[in-house]
């Protein structure tokens, strides 16, 4: 049994990881910012400590007595007006967590990055994720890095959003051709991987690409969701060049749906071989149609 400190526990992935840890008998301590405590409702017996990944002294206090850290904090979109930038939330936050772990004598650190993170990446999101990974690798701690593709499940920001569009809109807008491939991965599989990694010495010093067993284009994802909901999906493909021009002007406007950085990522395939991850932690893959059925028809 471990006492595990989690950053990002109030997020979609964080809640799943906390549930998996509790199911495996670990004591879970969740870092929460003031006012975010209600987001942990339903998790049951977890320790809640107030703090901020950007304020080192709060981490020193919150991490005391733990023997493992799971660092999940990240953002997909910057909000500079609120000082929420990739540089701060990916790089600076990771440096703070690693320094606090070292100071508290915590050796085991699990870090969530993102599939597509690599040196020379085009998107600033991936660039800063890579710098965070480099900090983890050079920390001197017993680290493991996970790079998930799009994680989906109840309450996510992917399938839930697309299903709502399919249900409500006569025509679903698709940016560009919709032919870039992705490998959505079922949240419980990701969460259980984190939980099992705590007691797998072979996982120390390893980085795992995490994805579902099959790759799909966005067009195919929409068609699968439509078939599950028994609705025909009519798509309107918006030319990428037009979206780029609009985004350059409007991305700072609240509620505009995409950023220039996200468009760069949309142009790339987001795929990998998930077998090393699955084998390392003795996990059974969940096919995307099976996950959709559990989400939409259960």
Q: In terms of topology, how is this protein built?
A:
Elements: E1 3-7, H1 12-23, E2 27-32, E3 47-50, H2 56-62, E4 68-71, H3 86-104, E5 108-112, H4 124-137, E6 142-148, E7 151-152, H5 159-168, E8 172-175, E9 181-182, E10 185-186, H6 187-197, E11 206-210, E12 216-217, H7 218-229, E13 235-238, H8 240-250, H9 260-266, H10 275-280, H11 288-296
Parallel strand pairs: 1-2, 1-4, 2-3, 4-5, 5-6, 6-11, 7-10, 8-13
Antiparallel strand pairs: 9-12
Helix pairs in contact: 1-6, 2-3, 3-4, 5-7, 7-11
Describe this structure in words.
This protein is an alpha/beta fold and 298 residues long. The chain has helices at 12-23, 56-62, 86-104, 124-137, 159-168, 187-197, 218-229, 240-250, 260-266, 275-280, 288-296; strands spanning 3-7, 27-32, 47-50, 68-71, 108-112, 142-148, 151-152, 172-175, 181-182, 185-186, 206-210, 216-217, 235-238. It has a domain at 3-151 and 187-211 and 272-284: 3-Layer(aba) Sandwich (Rossmann fold), CATH 3.40.50.720. It contains 11 helices and 13 strands. A 7-stranded parallel beta sheet has the order 3-2-1-4-5-6-11, sandwiched between helices. Strands 7-10 form a two-stranded parallel sheet. It is globular, with a radius of gyration of 19 Å. The two termini are 33 Å apart. The model has no long low-confidence stretch (mean pLDDT 94).
């Amino acid at each position: 049994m471990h006492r595990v400190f989690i950053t990002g526990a109030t997020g979609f992935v964080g809640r799943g990881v906390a549930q998996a840890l509790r199911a495996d008998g670990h004591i879970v301590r969740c870092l929460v910012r003031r006012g975010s405590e209600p987001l942990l409702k339903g998790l049951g017996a977890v320790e809640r400590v107030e703090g901020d990944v950007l304020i080192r002294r709060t981490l020193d206090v919150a991490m005391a007595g733990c023997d493992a850290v799971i660092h999940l904090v990240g953002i997909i979109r910057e909000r500079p007006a609120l000082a929420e930038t990739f540089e701060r939330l990916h790089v600076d936050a990771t440096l703070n967590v690693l320094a606090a772990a070292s100071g508290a004598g915590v050796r085991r650190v699990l870090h969530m990055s993102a599939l597509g993170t690599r040196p020379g990446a085009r998107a600033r999101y991936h660039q800063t994720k890579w710098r965070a990974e480099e900090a983890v690798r050079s920390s001197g701690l017993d680290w493991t890095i996970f790079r998930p593709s799009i994680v989906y499940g109840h309450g996510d920001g992917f399938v839930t959003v697309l299903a709502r569009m399919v249900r409500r809109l006569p025509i679903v807008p698709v940016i560009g051709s919709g032919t870039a491939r992705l490998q959505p991965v079922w949240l419980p599989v990701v969460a259980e991987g984190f939980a099992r990694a705590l007691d797998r010495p072979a996982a120390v010093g390893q980085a795992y690409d995490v994805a579902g067993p099959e790759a799909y284009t966005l067009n195919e994802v929409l068609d699968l969701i439509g078939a599950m909901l028994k609705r025909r999906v009519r798509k309107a493909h918006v030319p990428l060049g037009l979206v780029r021009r609009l985004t350059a002007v409007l991305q700072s406007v609240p509620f505009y749906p995409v950023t220039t950085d996200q468009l760069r990522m949309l142009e790339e395939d987001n795929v990998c071989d998930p077998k090393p991850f699955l084998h390392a932690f003795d996990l059974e893959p969940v096919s995307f149609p099976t996950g959709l059925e559990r989400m939409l028809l259960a």
